Amino acid sequence: MSTKSPSPGIVQNASLEDRLYTVKYEDPGESHLDVENPGICTTCHEDACVDVCPAKVWRKDADGTPTIAYENCLECGSCRFACPNENVIWTYPERGAGVTYKKG
Ligand code: SF4
Ligand code: SF4
Q: What is the DSSP code (8-state) at residue 30?
């Protein structure tokens, strides 16, 4: 086991929560995410949008309708490509709002 101290300013073994804390966010005021056809979601049992999202943006209600907490979106684009029904409407937030990454 190493006894060497980390360099100043270097976070060792940062948790996902620690990393997310470094992301700056500006609320665009309206969702940049939606679904083309909510009816498709109510019969979809894959729920890939829920499973693939690292920020827990997607949640399925009891009737199968998705609730989208767009404010948490990291703009990774995964939900758009994961949906087997190509049902996700995905755009960048308007006016340059959304996330800004301070670290890689
Ligand atoms: S994976 Fe696509 S079709 Fe299924 S619930 Fe999510 S957005 Fe709707
Ligand atoms: S773009 Fe990424 S972070 Fe945003 S909702 Fe889709 S999967 Fe989640």
A: S
User: pLDDT tens for residues 14-43?
Assistant: 787 787 778 888 888 899 999 999 999 999
Residue 22 amino acid letter: T
Q: Which fold has domain 25-93?
A: Alpha-Beta Plaits (3.30.70)
Which of the listed residues 56, 83, 86, 89 should we mutate to test ligand 1's pocket, taking the one with most ligand atoms within 8 A of CB?
83
Q: What is d(CA 43, CA 85) in angstroms, rounded to the nearest whole number?
A: 11
Question: Global pTM?
Answer: 0.79
Task: Let me know: does 78 contact 49? Beta carbons within 8 Å.
Answer: no
| Sequence spans of domains, the chain | 25-93
Please give the Cα distance from 16 to 18 (Å, whole number): 5
Non-local CB neighbours of 51 within 8 Å, separated by 6+ positions:
82
